[in-house]
Design a protein that fits this description.
The structure holds two protein chains of two kinds. Chain A is an all-alpha fold. Chain A is built from 14 helices and no strands. In chain A, helix 2 runs antiparallel to helix 10, helix 2 crosses helix 12 and helix 4 packs across helix 10. Chain A starts with 6 loop residues before the first helix and ends with a helix. By secondary structure, chain B is of the alpha/beta class. Helix content of chain B is 44%, strand content 11%. A four-stranded parallel beta sheet of chain B has the order 2-1-3-4. A four-stranded parallel beta sheet of chain B has the order 6-5-7-8, with helices on both faces. In chain B, helix 3 crosses helix 6. The chains are: A mainly alpha, B alpha/beta. At the A-B interface, helix 2, helix 6 and helix 13 of A face helix 9 and helix 10 of B.
């Protein structure tokens, strides 16, 4: 590998890195926020399985475009990944309501279906395999302007919805019986929560890759849950840490000449690891 | 048991009655001209090699390409349906220089066809007859990326290499199928002449451009033969090392170089990711030239090269 840049050089070349670094921050913030529910509901592999399903959605879209003559919105990889992700979340949430063991099994089924399906469909759309590889392994060193806009809108809409309805989402996540007693539309809130998660994961997977998407939806929330005294603060902290990991990971990749997805994930792991002793110190105060 | 089998065995008299009809049918089949089966079954690993083999073999060969033009030849899935043509092949044409090392050997073994095994009479390694570029001058190790110890294997975009391959391939076809030797030699001669004329004409066309105009960035180090033929100067590659995905720091260096030297064009094959190239050219106001990974179905080799030369020339003179 060649030598990395200095911090000064990074900001001198801001024109080049702006889109990808800001997209990393936006995706990290959004997924960090949603990750609190993922972690506290003990479904950390949800986003891994769902991002694999998103990969299959992209592969199927490319297939439909190449072999079935689909065009326009119907040939949009974003739509394909969102659709498959929603189906995957539906299967996991509905089928896994009864027992955690059944839910774990369904997570495995969705992951395997996504992985095997992508490989199988990939043999029919070899011209697009590079794109599918890039999104699955997070080599998104450069982000095109349309994708920045897409992630920004997604973060604004889903983030706004979660800020507005965070009490309801928290109630159905951690005290579903209490939520029903209080007359909250528990099922609708639950489905909305998972639908927003599905959309966020599918779009982020498509733009920044599956590895950082999985990392952002688990690691900042792990740290935030350890450090924050309550759920609203955990949500805020997780969003901030996620955004920091997204931007900081990109910066680290530039400074140390590393792959972007790997650098963002390693930074997230460091944050999660540091949260444990820091949380211990805070507990002692 | 005997009772159950008896109705399945025709009576001798029935066989005698059917015999003339069977004989007539067999004779009719033998009398039909054999237009469906070519004299030589050729399998080529890459579409460009298949296109060259078709030029030489003409109507006397059936050519199958294992990898489609849209697929990175480094990574072809060795699927079971690729085994059948290899099993029936009289001649296997490979690129060589370890380009197919990741996927061809298991297919060769599974094909159970002694003729096309490495070193066999039906095994033709195109790299053995071309002038090689990019031969490493020092010891090669994996830290250097996807370096081929015998030299850069991407010579199929150079018509001068194609001439050498065509001549040697014609000799091999003559050896395997002497009954059509005159046709193979005639086809090879005509193809060689067409390639030579085309190669010279394009060289002259690109030589008319200034040195600044002829500077380009490639995505992967797979275009050295193409650039050598057309006199283009590869200033840098988007990949920091062959097969290694670009990092932000390397992309920054490439951008800086492009701005410094006024380079506006990034050239890459269709099977490589395009986002980084698009970002670079957007920032310098240039263009990405996306080349097909091989001769598309229904096109001839020279048409394929003509399309590439035209696309490059248009981008460099924009």
């Amino acid at each position: 590998m060649g030598e990395g840049l200095t911090v000064e050089q990074f900001f001198e070349l801001w024109e080049l890195f702006r889109d990808a670094a800001l997209t990393g921050a936006l995706a990290g913030g959004l997924l960090g926020l949603l990750g609190v529910y993922v972690v506290l509901r003990r479904m950390v592999f949800l986003s891994a399985a769902v991002s694999q399903a998103a990969g299959l959605g992209v592969a199927l879209t490319f297939y439909a475009k190449a072999h079935l003559g689909f065009a326009g919105l119907m040939a949009s990889p974003t739509l394909g990944s969102a659709l498959l992700t929603l189906i995957a979340v539906g299967i996991i949430v509905r089928g896994g309501r009864d027992t955690p063991a059944r839910r774990d099994g369904l997570l495995g089924v969705v992951w395997l279906l996504g992985a095997a399906g992508t490989l199988a469909v990939g043999t029919r759309i070899v011209q697009d395999l590079a794109d599918i590889d890039a999104l699955l392994f997070g080599t998104a060193v450069a982000v095109v302007p349309e994708d920045v806009t897409l992630v920004a809108w997604t973060a604004a809409l889903i983030g706004g919805l979660h800020l507005w309805a965070h009490r309801g989402f928290a109630a159905v996540s951690f005290d579903p019986d209490g939520a029903r007693v209080r007359g909250l539309p528990a099922r609708a809130l639950d489905w909305t929560l998972f639908a927003t998660l599905a959309v966020a994961v599918s779009i982020c997977t498509r733009v920044i890759g599956a590895l950082p998407t999985f990392a952002f939806s688990v690691l900042p929330a792990l740290a935030a849950v350890r450090l924050a005294p309550n759920v609203p603060r955990a949500l805020m902290l997780a969003a901030l840490l996620g955004a920091g990991c997204g931007f900081g990971g990109y910066l680290l990749a530039s400074l140390y000449d590393l792959p972007v997805g790997a650098a963002q994930t390693l930074l997230g792991l460091t944050v999660a690891a540091l949260a444990a002793p820091l949380g211990w110190l805070l507990d002692r105060r | 048991m005997e009772t159950a089998l008896r109705p399945l065995v025709p009576a001798p008299s029935a066989l005698l009655t059917a015999l003339p009809a069977l004989l007539a049918a067999t004779l009719a089949l033998l009398a039909t001209p054999n237009i469906a089966r070519a004299d030589l079954q050729v399998v080529a690993t890459l579409p460009d090699l298949a296109a060259i083999a078709r030029e030489i073999g003409g109507e006397h060969v059936t050519v199958t390409a294992l990898a489609p033009p849209s697929q990175d030849p480094h990574y072809v899935d060795p699927r079971p349906n690729l085994i059948l043509p290899l099993n029936r092949a009289d001649l296997l044409v490979v690129n060589g220089l370890e380009l197919e090392v990741g996927w061809l050997p298991p297919l060769q073994v599974a094909a159970r066809n002694g003729r096309i095994q490495t070193g066999g009479e039906g095994y033709f390694d195109a790299s053995a007859v071309v002038r090689r570029l990019g031969v490493p001058q020092s010891k090669v190790d994996r830290a250097m990326g996807d370096i081929h110890p015998g030299g850069n294997p991407h010579f199929l975009l150079d018509p001068r290499a194609a001439r050498q391959i065509a001549a040697a391939l014609a000799n091999r076809m003559v050896k395997l199928d002497p009954s059509n030797s005159a046709a193979y030699r005639a086809n090879a001669s005509a193809f060689d002449e067409a390639l030579a004329t085309f190669a010279r004409a394009q060289q002259a066309r690109f030589a008319a451009l200034s040195a600044e105009q002829r500077r380009v960035v490639a995505y992967h180090a797979s275009l050295v033969y193409l650039f050598d033929w057309l006199g283009l100067i590869e200033a840098e590659t988007v990949e920091p090392r062959p097969g290694i995905a670009p990092t932000p720091a390397h992309v920054a260096r490439v951008l800086s170089l492009m701005k410094q030297q006024g380079i506006r064009v990034v050239v890459q094959e269709a099977y490589y990711p395009q986002k980084t190239s698009q970002t670079l050219t957007r920032l310098v106001g240039g263009r990405v030239v996306v080349l097909p990974g091989g001769t598309p179905d229904g096109k001839r080799y020279l048409q394929h090269l003509q399309g590439i030369a035209d696309a490059l020339h248009a981008a460099l003179t924009q």
